[in-house]
UniProtKB/TrEMBL annotation:
Classification of source organism: Eukaryota, Fungi, Dikarya, Ascomycota, Pezizomycotina
UniProt-recorded name of the protein: 5-formyltetrahydrofolate cyclo-ligase
A Pfam family of this chain: 5-FTHF_cyc-lig
Organism for this UniProt entry: Phialocephala subalpina
One CC-aspect GO term: cytoplasm
Signal peptide: none
């Protein structure tokens, strides 16, 4: 299967899942039900959060990356309440990484800081050079996704932002192939579909739904860093950390 055929296959899968997701998804204030533009929150996401925080991978992590997805806003808030430091990116990674440190933010502002509309006002922008100097590595990366199979391969919105976030953090040495990854989804987003992963696809060690935890054996993790020639057109110009990373490499 060629790359174009594989992407067409993924698109068909996403479309099928989105028709089911619409029954349980919560609309976004900006994107409504356009699931190609955002990862939706859904009925039962609080139950998924409760399941996730029971995992040793969560309990043992002091520094977490939690993607800027609607379905894991409550997890960002929960992590701050649990005394954990959270890294998050802005939408599309365009304005880079932000750090939410419960030791720097008053607890009355934790919930607002966990929201995309609040994190840039309350959290702190952090450059890659500073991330490299943080005293701990990232213990866990969590994302939402459009759909996922039982091998932990994601069928996302099609832009590859989580793969890119992994690649950036891998390149600067803050994650490695042992770093645990988790996808949070509704039951209707878990599929039996086969998918051949690309070299840059970041598999998930756990899939956490509103009903259960699925543990994936030998989830694939890329070790290639940024594949500069594979970036979508305009990404280098639009995404601040990519420009910083290129400067660091020079």
């Amino acid at each position: 299967m060629t790359i174009s055929q594989a992407e067409s296959h993924k698109h068909l899968i996403r479309t099928k899942v989105w028709s089911q997701l619409r029954k349980v998804a919560l609309p976004d204030s900006r994107f409504h039900h356009d699931y190609s533009s955002f990862i939706a929150d859904f009925e039962g996401s609080s139950a998924a959060t409760d399941l996730l925080v029971s995992l040793p991978a969560y309990k043992n992590a002091d520094l977490l990356f939690i993607a800027p997805d609607n379905c894991i806003q409550a997890l960002r808030y929960r992590a701050l309440k649990d005394g954990k430091t959270v890294l998050v990116t802005t939408y599309g990674i365009r304005r880079g990484f932000w750090i939410l440190d419960p030791n720097e933010i008053h607890e009355s502002k934790w919930e607002m800081a966990s929201m995309l509309d609040g994190m840039e006002r309350i959290g702190r922008h952090i450059a890659l050079a500073e991330i490299t100097k943080l005293p701990m590595d990232i213990g866990l990366m969590v994302t939402g996704t459009g759909a996922i199979n039982y091998k932990g391969l994601r069928f996302g919105k099609g832009h590859g932002f989580f793969d890119l976030e992994w690649a950036i953090l891998y390149t600067i040495g803050k994650v490695n192939k042992k770093t645990k990854t988790i996808a949070v989804v509704h039951e209707c987003q878990v599929l039996d579909e086969e998918l051949r992963g690309e070299v840059w696809d970041t598999g998930c060690d756990f899939v956490v739904t509103n009903k259960k935890i699925i543990e994936v054996e030998d989830a694939s993790k890329p070790n290639c860093g940024i594949l500069w020639d594979k970036l979508e057109e305009g990404m280098l110009e639009d995404i601040e950390p990519l420009r910083e990373l290129r400067s660091m490499k020079k």
